[in-house]
Fold this sequence. Notes:
- By secondary structure, chain A is of the alpha/beta class.
- Among the domains of chain A are: about 80-200, Rossmann fold, CATH 3.40.50; about 265-430, no CATH class; about 455-520.
- Chain A has 14 helices and 23 strands.
- Chain A has helices at about 35-50, 65-70, 100-105, 130-140, 160-170, 190-200, 200-220, 235-240, 250-265, 350, 360-370, 385-405, 445-450, 470-485, and strands at about 1-5, 10-20, 20-30, 60-65, 80-85, 110-115, 145-150, 175-180, 225-230, 235, 270-275, 280-285, 285-290, 295, 300, 310, 320, 335-345, 415-420, 430-435, 455-465, 495-505, 510-520.
- A six-stranded mixed beta sheet of chain A has the order 3-2-1-4-9-10, with helices on both faces.
- The radius of gyration of chain A is 25 Å and the shape is globular.
- Residues about 525-535 of chain A have low confidence and may be disordered.
- By secondary structure, chain B is an alpha+beta fold.
- Chain B folds into two domains: about 1-200, CV3147-like domain (CV3147-like fold, 3-Layer(aba) Sandwich); about 235-360, CV3147-like (Beta Barrel).
- The two termini of chain B are about 35 Å apart.
- The mean pLDDT of chain B is about 90.
- Chains A and B meet through helix 12 and strand 22 of A and helix 2 and strand 12 of B.
Amino acid sequence: xxxxxxxxxxxxxxxxxxxxxxxxxxxxxxxxxxxxxxxxxxxxxxxxxxxxxxxxxxxxxxxxxxxxxxxxxxxxxxxxxxxxxxxxxxxxxxxxxxxxxxxxxxxxxxxxxxxxxxxxxxxxxxxxxxxxxxxxxxxxxxxxxxxxxxxxxxxxxxxxxxxxxxxxxxxxxxxxxxxxxxxxxxxxxxxxxxxxxxxxxxxxxxxxxxxxxxxxxxxxxxxxxxxxxxxxxxxxxxxxxxxxxxxxxxxxxxxxxxxxxxxxxxxxxxxxxxxxxxxxxxxxxxxxxxxxxxxxxxxxxxxxxxxxxxxxxxxxxxxxxxxxxxxxxxxxxxxxxxxxxxxxxxxxxxxxxxxxxxxxxxxxxxxxxxxxxxxxxxxxxxxxxxxxxxxxxxxxxxxxxxxxxxxxxxxxxxxxxxxxxxxxxxxxxxxxxxxxxxxxxxxxxxxxxxxxxxxxxxxxxxxxxxxxxxxxxxxxxxxxxxxxxxxxxxxxxxxxxxxxxxxxxxxxxxxxxxxxxxxxxxxxxxxxxxxxxxx
Amino acid sequence: xxxxxxxxxxxxxxxxxxxxxxxxxxxxxxxxxxxxxxxxxxxxxxxxxxxxxxxxxxxxxxxxxxxxxxxxxxxxxxxxxxxxxxxxxxxxxxxxxxxxxxxxxxxxxxxxxxxxxxxxxxxxxxxxxxxxxxxxxxxxxxxxxxxxxxxxxxxxxxxxxxxxxxxxxxxxxxxxxxxxxxxxxxxxxxxxxxxxxxxxxxxxxxxxxxxxxxxxxxxxxxxxxxxxxxxxxxxxxxxxxxxxxxxxxxxxxxxxxxxxxxxxxxxxxxxxxxxxxxxxxxxxxxxxxxxxxxxxxxxxxxxxxxxxxxxxxxxxxxxxxxxxxxxxxxxxxxxxxxxxxxxxxxxxxxxxxxxxxxxxxxxxxxx
Lengths: 535, 367
């Protein structure tokens, strides 16, 4: 049995799954105190199914904590950046082009230090160990403990970053270091941006991941805790604590993978309707389509491969702006009303009309139209048919336009309707072959977390003169495969998700760095867990 | 005209398209320009005809492999060092700079240099797009000399190149760029005001801005950015035909860095699997074959663009699995003259094909 948890800004969802079956699920408001919220959600699904906590094989948590902290500019550490590349790059110091408020929030403390590699492996300048030591001492004196170290061409040769890290640790033992070579690929600015963001989340990551760990063990679950990453693969709690930036895009990935799993569809548009927004993404062969362009996180350019997601301001708590005098109108002008983009969010349960409040929302419309049965119908206003139709049509058009933008081919495609607000998606949409509402659609994201996969990445430098390209890629893929199986992957499900070749020009013999990323489902754990299915 | 922050963004979008896959992603050049803008205010761009005939006009830009330029970033003094040395050699001050090529990051590169020297940029360039080699500039085609030419790098080295032969100049500059680590700044083809008026490709900064603005505005209004961009191109009169040549995903990229260039082949497949496009590149995209039939060749423009946002994707940023549109556009007429095709036609790149204008072979996809 596996547990998947999705900690969103509004709701915390959890599922307990046994193979492909959802044994129990829950959706609860996210608590201010992370630990009790997660513990309560996990406790609920265990109690609901009567399962023994000791029989849980894994707990995977997807969280929006990190991305929200970044977007809201809160709980971020001040960061010191050591860049080893001078004299190159001095025209573009760290954090160039960042939003000013974010820069002010984490400080703009950087040191441009000699170092870095040329493309052919020569040093741009030798490392100046004394200057690194001085920089570390300065940061130590200023109380800056979150430090990012970056270096030109470090994805190909990480030696200088590691040497610099060792020096910093010697003189500044309290420092927590992020090395850019551990995070990103070629593209110094984007890699450095990711490293600085990561460093800024040092304290937050420690607090959040540790409270997850405490929540899990408080319930009596001893299984390993995983945090789901951008690409739908798992990070151990320790990895996530060190590299929170790798988990920031996991939300949409989890909901799309969960939707695919629950519906059996591998190629479809996924619409995940939450309280405030609808995330629309495209599934291709069971995986989220990735954005072709660079991923901006909190206004900062990074080079992560993120799912290509279109967010529109339409959710279950979205406000409907219409003059009450027009509620009974015989016809409604298109310009007379507006849907969103503002939302009541978690205040829906107090301020929404069907909960006795004063604010008309999309959920009220759904209740009047009879597609949902929660809330108090007596509290709802009387809308004329013309008014209701006009409002519902606008919602339909918003979804149809969003779906069109994400389609990769002409022709009709299926739509997987998931998320707590999926009732807003009508059963017939233009350009859509069918709207599928899989069972447990409300908690697809938690299901996606529960089924997150083991991943492995291997890179090797090979000569395309010594070995032909196809065999070279196969050779590296075989190593990655071996690694993912060691990490608990099921051999039958290993899939190559990315092949990247970086030509190392000027090295003789067409030297190329080949990087292959593979994923696999976690293998079904062996007994005694298997024996407990009767529970 | 004065270029403010929005205009720089538009110029970068348009220059990326005109780069035909090369010239480097203008992102870093944009960051540099924005940082300089904050220090010194908007950039001044003036028409070529505003200059006197005896003025000294200097084209400049970066030479090297774009794959290197994303790691070995500029120091900031490269352009100024090169231009100052040229002034010493010529015994006079420089009146204006121009981009050697409008395409890619080089379309923005002179803004930074001009601001540092306190001189304007002229609304023109030497290629009307981006090309991989220096002698492909219109100034060589028209018989002008590339020298004296100055190559500088981030580590502070400076080399003066003197040669009567523009091909020799290219070889030397290329070898030097490799020797200094794969990316360098090059000042070349110093021109008189008269020569700039007679030979430069006029109005290309305005065109790049207009293309970028069209894409930006279409995005803001939820309109089709491709249609808006094509319309903007046609309106300029300089790039009269444009359209979509292919729509699909990248299923293979074979790429290597050879002799200072990024060279290789990309294969696209349509979403229904029925059609393929192969595209060869040497820094820039050079020739596209759809199901074995040539549909566009250099010097016409061939750019891979994100199919949703119409962001241009430079060759070094192409990745397996990307979904993209391949867009073509007719090159400016002066690049299509017989004399020009000797230097920038498909045969100049070692292809067997003769040049045929894109509008005669493209068979644009229906919008």
